[in-house]
Amino acid sequence: MYQRTLTFIDRLRKNGLAKWFIFVLISSVCISLLLSSMGMNPNVLFYLGKFLNGNEKSGQGDSWTAMTEALTYLRKHPMDSVYEAMFAIKLKFQYPLSSLLLFDIPNRLFGWSYYGIANLLDLVSRISVIGTGLVSAKILTLVLHEQRFEKLQIASRFTTVALYVLVFALMLLFYPLLRSYYLGQIQTILTFLTVLSILCWQYNRRMMAGILIGLICVVKPQLGVLFLWGLIRKQWKMFFAGMFVLGIFSAISIGFYGFKNNLQYLEVLSYLSHHGETYYPNQSINGLVNRFTFNGLILDWDGKFPPYSDVVYFITVISSATIMLVSLFWNYTTKYPHIIDFCLVILCTTIASPIAWEHHYGILFPIFIILSPYACYYNEDKKFALLLFGFGFLLASQYFEAVKSLADSRWNVLQSYLFFGAVIIVAFLFQVSYRINRKIKDEPSPLK
Prior knowledge:
Blueprint: H1 2-14, H2 16-37, H3 44-52, H4 62-76, H5 82-88, H6 101-110, H7 114-143, H8 157-171, H9 175-183, H10 187-202, H11 206-219, H12 225-232, H13 236-257, H14 259-275, H15 285-292, H16 310-329, H17 339-352, H18 364-378, H19 383-397, H20 417-440
Helix pairs in contact: 2-8, 3-9, 4-5, 7-8, 7-10, 7-18, 10-11, 11-13, 12-13, 12-16, 13-14, 15-16, 16-17, 17-18, 17-20, 18-19, 18-20, 19-20
């Protein structure tokens, strides 16, 4: 037994990528234990405990409550504005009406109660968390078939098993994903669907990737930017498959709730972009600037939006437009968009949103896992760069309650630590994408 343990450790030591993930995992564990010992609660270990125990808020949740309340009101008052009604009772229902089909269709077809559907969605969310870890590891093993990674010594069954274990362990300490599950957020399921779309992209299943993105857009239309990205690159299968799915659900939504009610969602998006959110979990440029200018409540959730500010709105629009334009047209002439480019536009879409809650960054986990071998390969001799890469992930993977004490000072910019971590990861996505596409531009890629 002792000899087997030594052999196991020695084989891990010789594997460059395994050593990288072990380093990140140990760092994450140490930070989690340190925060817990300092009484910084809740922390990632708190949310891990809730996840392992199955959470006690069954049938209730952030998304489920908003959706069922909106659907109940809409059925009673089909001619009224459901968005105004929800905002009047300080319930921020910010989804398109097509999202209500998640509850409405099972209720109409099978007579299931909203509470029962919410319980089922809680189970699906739990499966989605586990699935996000496993699928992320699967994509990683597919990525590692590239010849450039031979020096990382990954071509063995032992390495594959070790990487699955390490990736899954890292997932169990990733705050945005666990927080999403704890809240009862539809984003947990959307994150899993996004990871599946990345897997399909890796397998060159463009049509299936488009279908999955279309399903996501039924609830979160912002990710529809991916279709514009695909259209620019002439990814017709992805584009038309996604548009078909989105068209079907949009038609059903219009049939159920009326064209006017559905169209009003555009007004909601406009209002959100003009105001944003000051509350500290909003990890976007809008949230950062709102807090820096003390435009609204930072630590308290009162159900109201911050006052309109010319400065905040101008900076939000300019920054969001810049991020999206750069990501949309980055390497736009390539015939075979790489998986890194696909991940790049997904993460940029989140960062560019006026409102990007902590749980929206659940997608950062699989992107970090997929990006890691490339970052290690291209920065093999740049230890500082790798430390910065790991630091960015650790910033995003933890909950640092201590920064709440900075709310009343200009140092409240540090409350945007998750956002800064995501920016670091985006910078590495750009670096890796540049290095990859410089060599294989306009040539078929083994990872297309």
